[in-house]
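Q: Here's a chain of 424 amino acids. Please give me its 3D structure as tokens.
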Amino acid sequence: MSSSRILILGAGFGGVSAALTLDRVAKRHPEIEVVLIDEHDFHQVNADLYEVGTAFFREHIDQAERFRILKQKTVCIPIARILHGKRVHFLKDTVTGTDANTRVVELKDHGRVAFDALIIALGSEANDFGIPGIREYGFTFKTIDDALNLRAHIQNQLAWAKTCAVNERDCHLRFLIGGGGFTGVELAPEIHRLLRHLAPLYDIDPSQIEIRIIEAGPDILLGIDPSVTRIAHSRLKKLGIHVALNTKITEERLKEVRTLQGEEANTLVSQTLIWTAGVRPASVLSRSHGLTLDKGGRVVVDSSLSARADGRVFAIGDNAVVEGVGKIAASAYGAIEQGKIAAHNAFAKLTDGKVRHFHVSPTIFVVPMGGKWAVAKVGKFVFAGYFAWFMKRMIEFHYFVSILPFFEACRRFFVESRIVTQND
């Protein structure tokens, strides 16, 4: 029997899910080669990225050591450990283009790689919507390096505030978050808690520090249960975090951010704008051939997540829009489920198996909001507090167990928990 090759582009939640699914279903088919391709040699668990950006160490260690600990023991899981003993090969490289017509993927270092089936799971990247200054002066929050750089910047702002004139402190002690979606709402309370710990070390009164979420829409956490939003507002108010709604950021400069609320323009003095307001599909999709993209740059797929009539190319997660359904709300759970379906269907195409279809199902979600506190929605039930936070930790533990050997998953989970909860 002739050999076949399935390529998976991207080692995020969807890509890893597809790879592990194919390892299971293809065990009796040694003629099928499975290759996972990513520009990094680690799998980033984005759900805990905000913890890295705000981690507080009670013991004194230098910045280089702090960065090493956070990278190796928290959100970055080596792909080699995930794929150890699996029938999936890993190739570290950057995807520069795809051609579905000729069934070829272009890679930066390895050139052209042919495939018989392809799963596109390249994730998303920050979208500044062309707002002047965001790219030059703002802080994006998509990668481990973004989180580490933000953590260093926050501490530097306090150091500068300690030494500058009192009338210049606002610039260093006002922290702005552009976007009131999940990332912004999760990040703001954690920054609050980090600053609460750090401020006394720099002889700064915490009451002088301002944290503000700036949301262009009519509310935070748009599109989810209003009762969750109300609870989130209450939590932010209790922590002293300001929320500006219906307010657009129009420009960022070196030490100021300009906004527009209705017809009222305003200028906020600040050296910290964390941009969480928008993402777009991986830009490499615009350089793909043989695929149909929507206006947002996503690959149009059918209910089987197939992008073509020949059923050999699949797109999932942030890279896909399902015909008749539209863009699926971004979530790790959704990407994992889509990864399983795409993997099954890619395998089915090469073995004349039965195709499965994707159906939107109610998603369990938890919004952590500082300390051991979160708000969660499970089915029709909404609850908040410690139990919601604990449920989030258990969901993460279950995920670790699903991709790593049990004892290694336990070790990583408990080490990570100890590190990321030190500021609680």
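Q: Can you summarize the key feature?
A: The chain has a mean pLDDT of 91.
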